[in-house]
Each structure stands twice: as structure tokens, then as C-alpha cells.
């Protein structure tokens, strides 16, 4: 492979060196390799689309409806001020992650008993290698987020990037999801065009998945930069389910990113129990058609209240 420098790419593409470095750091230049402080760009790499110029195709006028943002902020502040034992909070997180995974993989056809067996490293002849790997890999990825971001008075390793997610990181996460299933898999966005709006918009224009993912990242980094973390997490969760960037396991991937965004914002995982999962699916259907996130946000708010109560019960040392 022949590589060129940022300076050479700047002349070739007609954009500034600074802009190219940003695109490289965001994972938007295919095949780029970092060596120390330098970026090595494949000579065959195509100039990335400029997401700043494609906002006119943003997918929805995403709406939250009436939500008690003050309460969401209070929950975050209370968790930030937790001063109980770290080992108690660690045990809480481990338990919440197991419950999060159990609810998720029931939707993937693995019952709760078998999910918990996989998480306990117990074998079951009725489960496929793929099922076992998917559960374990999902847990490993989310635990990695936890180590990066920290939680409450558990300090992260200080390496969490800004922005937390990028197109490159999305692809790396999807590759990690297939560890032990297809170790040589190189995940790429689906090479299809999909509508940028719901049927209600009566707009027949379509755009490549890659372009819509670029748009999503621009929205996340700019228009959503200062909104409540739960809202931002919900928006990205819904958009990833609508776009379905990869060929396989869209719900698992979107749920992993939801978990990462919530932890990054300082919130616990939203655990939707089996009784409420059908409600979530119905709410998602409305969201994907209309861009209306009110019901999903209310469901997540309800879940966060339950999780916050669980944390308060650890030692009674939370500021409410």
C-alpha cells in the first residue's frame, strides 16, 4: 500500500491540512494509519463527504415532547455525588449489565436463563457458538466503555476520546462483536441507499448509508452537542436502528452504542424488563416513522428512576 502525507492529501483534495487531520481522527478516511503524530493516508483513499454541507438531508426533525429534564439532571448529579463504597457501585453495575444483556438477548432468541449461563461461563449444548460469542462480546465491549468513562466515584482510565464515537469506532465495535465467530471480518457500512425521512415526509429521495452515517455524526457532534445526555443517547439509538449501518445484528449494535452514550453522559444503563420490551418496540415503530421520541424517552426516564433507586439503596449516600 502506498501512503501520502496530510500535506499531500490537502493538495489532492483541495481542503486544509487541519480539516484532514480532523477527518482522520474521526475515522472518516478509509484505511488511514497513524504513526506517532503523523497520519498516513492511502493514495487510493477517496475524499470524505463534507458532513457540514449535507445537513439539508438530516433525517428527521427529531422531537422529544414534554420531558422532565430537571429530573434527569438531578439523577446524574446524584450519581456524580455518590460517596459510598466503590465495590458496592461496581457490583451494582455488574448486576445492571447482566440485566441489560438479558433483556436485549431475549429479543435475539436467547432466554434469560441461557444468557445468565453464558455470562457465568456455563456451557449449554443447545446454544450455538455464535450465540455464546455475541453475548460475551457485547458484555466485553460495554465493560470497556465502563473502564473508559468511570461511573459515580469510580474513576475511568482517562482515555475516553472526544467525540466518544466516530465512524471508525463504530466499525471497530462491529468487528469486535464478531470475535470468535469470524475473526477476519472487516465490517463496512451497507452499500445501499435508503430514504432520509419517514413516509410521512412524502419525500422519495434516497442516500447511501455511508452518507447518512456521516450526517448522523455531524448532528451528534454539533446540533446534539449540548442537549441532555439521555436525549442524545436516545436519538442515536433510534437513528442507528433506522439506518441499520451494518448487515447483521442491528439491535445489538444500537444497544451497545446506547450503553456507551449513557455511560459517557454519566447515567446508568436503561434496563427495559420483559414486560416493557413490547412497549419499547411499539414506541420504536412510531419513532422510526415520525421522529417522535417522547414515548421512548419516557420509558428510559422510568428505567433510570428505577436504577437510581437501586443505587440509592446501596448505602443511602446519594444526593437526591
Explain what you see.
Helix 4 runs antiparallel to helix 6 (129-149), helix 8 runs antiparallel to helix 9 and helix 9 (229-243) packs antiparallel against helix 10 (250-264). The protein has 320 residues and is mainly alpha-helical. The chain is globular. The protein has helices at 6-13, 17-25, 69-80, 86-106, 112-119, 129-149, 167-177, 209-221, 229-243, 250-264, 274-290, 294-315; strands at 3-4, 33-35, 38-42, 150-151, 154-155, 193-195, 206-208. The N and C termini lie far apart (57 Å). A 3-stranded antiparallel beta sheet has the order 1-3-2. Strands 4-5 form a two-stranded antiparallel sheet. The protein has a two-stranded antiparallel ribbon with strand order 6-7. The protein contains 12 helices and 7 strands. A hairpin with a 2-residue loop joins strand 4 and strand 5. It has 2 domains: 3-48; 56-315, Fic-like fold, CATH 1.10.3290.10.
Q: What is the fourth-level CATH superfamily of the largest domain?
A: Fido-like domain
Q: Would you tell me the structural class of the helices and strands?
A: mainly alpha
Number of domains: 2
Q: What is the level-2 CATH architecture name of the largest domain? A: Orthogonal Bundle
CATH topological fold name of the largest domain: Fic-like fold
Beta-strand segment tally: 7
**Largest beta sheet: strand ordering:** 1-3-2
Distance between the termini: 57 Å
Strand content: 5-15%
- The DSSP helix count reads 12
The profile of the biggest β sheet is: 3 strands, antiparallel
Give the topology string: H per helix, E per strand. Answer: EHHEEHHHHEEHEEHHHHH
Shape: globular
Mean pLDDT: 81
Rg over CA atoms: 20 Å
Helix content: 40-55%
**CATH class category label of the largest domain:** Mainly Alpha
Q: Which spans have pLDDT < 50 for at least 5 consecutive residues? A: 52-60
